[in-house]
Amino acid sequence: MSLPDTEGPSPTATTEVEQSTEAEQLIDVEQFIELSVTLTGFNAAELMGTTMAGVYHAWVCQQVDPGLCAELIGASADGCAQLDEGPVRELARSICHLWYLGVWPCPDGHEHPTAPTVISGRAYAQGLVWRSFGGHAPGAGAPGYGSWAEPPAETTGGEQR
Known about the structure:
161 residues
């Protein structure tokens, strides 16, 4: 299943629905958001505001054993107190990495190890790392690449700031 760069309907939407993974059937987007709220410290509205929730949910469900996802959801029910070590902790770390940086690091012990994977350019720009300090991804937002190299333009009709 290919991951669309937008969450709107795609031309292959029926094909994507038919190819939903076992994990997607066991763990819905709402559960993934609740888990992500616990792991990231951002609220559900902030996570949904990134427009990446559906894409990240599909990605994690493709990459991870459904049983491990369910185990992580169970462990996170009490605020992640049971995430001392092992594959559940690695999955939690990977999901945080995904939300904050837009990169899937491939958790240690994963049965199909891969190099870290950038989900999309949009994932980089929507990373929580930028929101954590009120910034924007360099080169991805207004006013544009290189804008920080020049001093701000002078204002007219008022004092210089």
